[in-house]
Amino acid sequence: MDPKHQRRELTDGRFIPVLGFGTYAPEEVPKSEALEATKFAIGAGFRHIDCAYLYQNEEQVGQAIRSKIADGTVKREDIFYTSKLWATFLRPELVRPALENSLKNLQLDYVDLYIIHFPMAMKPGEDPLPKDENGKVIFDTVDLCSTWEAMEKCKDAGLAKSIGVSNFNHKQLEKILNKPGLKHKPVCNQVECHPYLNQSKLLDFCKSKDIVLVAYSALGSHRDPKWVDQSLPVLLDDPLLGAIAKKHKQTPAVIALRYQLQRRVVVLAKSYNKKRIKENMQVFDFELTPEDMKAIDGLNRNLRYCDFLLGVGHPEYPFSEEY
Fold first, then answer.
1. What helix, strand, coil percent values describe the chain, rounded to 5?
2. Is the dihedral angle over the CA atoms 38, 159, 99, 179 positive or is it negative?
3. Residue 151: φ, ψ to 5°
4. Cα separation, 149 vs 159, whole angstroms
5. DSSP conformation letters of 3-70
6. Which residue of 60, 139, 176, 233 pairs with 35 in a disulfide if CB–CB is 3.0 to 4.6 A?
7. Is 216 a catalytic residue?
8. What dihedral do alpha carbons 35, 38, 44, 49 form, nearest 10°?
């Protein structure tokens, strides 16, 4: 197998490519760019495409995948496509219709992975961030175990080949794992993870349960002002990452991605820049030394770019726990 297409086995026996292409972009970026970037990424060798209902670009990303199938670059089974169930659809009766809506936008028959995007339920409806007259998000109360049962039904129906979660802390994972009558375990937990927030405790917990940790914002976040505090330090400007990059004749971004692969973390690389999309593929061309790994471990400062403060006060707000 081409080294670019390295995969990890999931607990359900399916395989996830260890390097994924992230498709999120701030609202002001034209949707057409998602189409072009995704087509380019597949051409450059990416086989794992990470998207979500919330990103409002599944139509374009689906179009990109179908166009690369049509031109013979890939077959559908070569592509690993992830979508996510948004927080306004956590009531069990809304889960399958939400997935079917994503599939309709994508014009695909199934997704390879469907994950609960966030553990905090919000008021159902068209608005992804429902707010009251004071600008506070309107929460909903849903038992995550009932949401999970609806996810299991989506897998059994063949609409999602694998199911998992995102932004869950270890207590929330335990709640699902200990659910009476659990039929399918979550195969993954997709969380923010990078050298400034290396999630070592959550990673150890997930490894102990055979749950794959998938890293988003692995390059230190898109820094969309809608979600991220602009005063936070820029990960890729870190002098240590710069020095290690220089030594290996790579970019700091590639060092940050390689770091995750060597910890057995599946990593997402988000870029709409063609030069960088290609560069990020170089993650398979070299190895970091144990000294490099230890030095990068030392950068951890529990700095969260995506702290989703809108959700503070929700009983399922995940980030109050240590991990």
1. 40, 15, 45
2. negative
3. -65, -45
4. 14
5. GGG-EEE-TTS-EEESEEEE----TTS-THHHHHHHHHHHHHT--EEE--GGGT-HHHHHHHHHHHHH
6. 60
7. no
8. -160
Q: What is the chain's length?
A: 323
pLDDT tens, residue by residue, 110-148: 999 999 999 999 999 989 999 999 999 999 999 999 999
The average confidence (pLDDT) of the chain is: 96
Q: pLDDT of 5-34, one tens digit each?
A: 899 999 999 999 999 999 999 889 999 999
Q: Output the CA angle 278-82-3, nearest 5 degrees.
A: 40
Q: Indicate the pTM of the whole model.
A: 0.97
**Which listed residue (24, 55, 114, 259) is catalytic?**
55
SS3 category, 115: strand
Cα 87 to Cα 129: distance, rounded to the nearest angstrom = 9
User: By C-alpha distance, which of 252, 281, 250, 231 is closest to 44?
Assistant: 281
pLDDT tens, residue by residue, 277-287: 999 999 999 99
Q: Residue 232 gets which letter from DSSP?
A: S
Q: Reply yes or no on whether the pLDDT at 69 is more than 80.
A: yes
Q: Residue 161 in contact with residue 80, Cβ under 8 Å? A: no
CA 85, chain centre distance (Å): 12
- What 3-state DSSP class applies to 138? coil
